[in-house]
Amino acid sequence: MYQATYQLSDPSRRHSLTEYPYASLPYYAFLTISALLMAITGELGGSTLEAFWTNTSMSLSSTVSQPLWVRLSTEKSRAATTLVAVACFITGSSLALMAGSFDLLIAARTAQGLGIGGITALTNLVLLDFVSSGKSAAALGWVSASRALGSAVGPVVGASISERGLWRWIFWIDIPLALFSLVVLPSLVPCSAQAGSSSALGGLAQLDWIGAFVFLASLTGFLIPLTWGGVLFDWVSTHTLLPLCVCLGGLVGFALYSALWSRSPIFDRALFLTANSVVIYANAVFHGVAIFSLLYYLPLYFTIVKGASVLRASLYILPNSVIAAVASTASGAATSRMGRYRPLLWLGWATTTVGCGAQLVLDETTSVAGGVALTLVSGVGIGVLFTTLNLAAQASVPPAHTPAASSTTNFFRSLGQTVGIAVGGVVVQNVFRREIEASSVYGAYGAMWSRNIVKVGQAVRALKSPEQQALKSLVVTGVARSTRAVWLLLCILSGTQFLVSVAWVEDLTLDGARAVPRRRRLSISRPQLQTSLADPAAAGSFVR
Fold first, then answer.
1. Per-residue pLDDT for 253 more than 70?
2. pTM of the model
3. What is the largest CA-CA distance in the chain?
4. Overall number of domains in the chain
5. Which residue ranges does the record assign to the Major facilitator superfamily (MFS) profile domain (predicted)?
6. Same domain (yes/no): 276, 421
7. In terms of C-beta density within 10 A (0-12 exposed, 13-18 middle, 19 or more buried), how is residue 348 classed?
8. How far is C-alpha 342 from the chain's CA centre?
9. pLDDT-based confidence at 48, cuts 50/70/90?
10. Residue 340 backbone phi and psi in degrees, to 5
């Protein structure tokens, strides 16, 4: 049994992006594999179902594991727990590059997802454990920027490797990046030789196993039909609706159990006792929806509508991700200087709304340069929200719970990303199907083609003869209008969140004080909340 001893690194080094290379791994790892699925399926001889699970297994294991990683970590074992998460990622990557079948590849991707879940959940906790509150905004800006850069580099690397058919190289690249993190993290937050295991075992002993089981089973059962709806099974089929409804009920039951009966809930009750924090978590869900909807469906537009290769399409969306990284860093510095987050929160949602609205003009006639320029606006908004939402969540809870609030925001953002892919897919498929079915010649193919939009789009790109141009035009127009429907949905959702943030988010300083009189609050006041939480028995302890 032992205690961890933290030695703080030099303050001037705390804000260096190179100290958090592992923060970029989640988005990088998620987005590199999509372009490689066709090559992987061809070499391993897999089915559409196996290809589907190769991508989905990582997303599911990452999302559902995040709260458990945080719940198992303690202030004394945080760095050690993060190293375990990185080791899980390395193990999964090593198994994936050796995979000779889809069974092993899917298992490896699941292990990668567990590691990614830990990295996503614990990065901010490690940071906030030793960075002073006055510098946390700028430091979180750098971490958010590294994540945005991961989303920029991932598609380009994946597309480059895909064109050469060397899909195993993607996992070779993953390993040195993660190994570098294993070296960097201990030097950043060194512990004594006796650090971590007793604290981690204590976290296991205190874990609410009933709540954990219900949470994992319900969330997994809810997300799986969301990811396969419209892909493997129809949205109105029993395979999709039954698990959605049953597991949604399980999540509601989990929430009631955690609020009323659990002695050590997975999610600390203190994180949800103010209206401000609840609104911020809802903002994070919709932020995640916007991130992955843009990252998934902008390449679809450039590939099918503008006829770009997968690599060129990845390069076309690169400026959007780069500007998001710059905006994320700038918003962290600006928030730190102002000492308030609400102006940047409003700016983020307003810019995202305007940017998604501007993308409504994207069609077959839009030049590539014009299309790339239009995507920069939404990139600014997405980047600003990356940092600001975490800071807003931290300011909405008592100081002892700020690390947990930041990680909970990351969880809801990850949940939104999974939902965003599903929702975007529903919109694209339904609009595309409607466009095809409106054709008197090809209408009978609407249902079938809507399930394989990428393959159909790639096939019609090669059509050259005059008599085939009508078919090509029909598909290209269908994809253009389908993606436009996604931009419209994102514009509406972002605009709604802007209005919600104006109406309900309090103007707090970064230390939780009110900058202006509060207009909306729950029945429990912030001083009462802090007083009640002074007693450990008053609420479950998330960060111990």
1. yes
2. 0.83
3. 77
4. 3
5. 1-469
6. yes
7. buried
8. 22
9. low
10. -140, 150
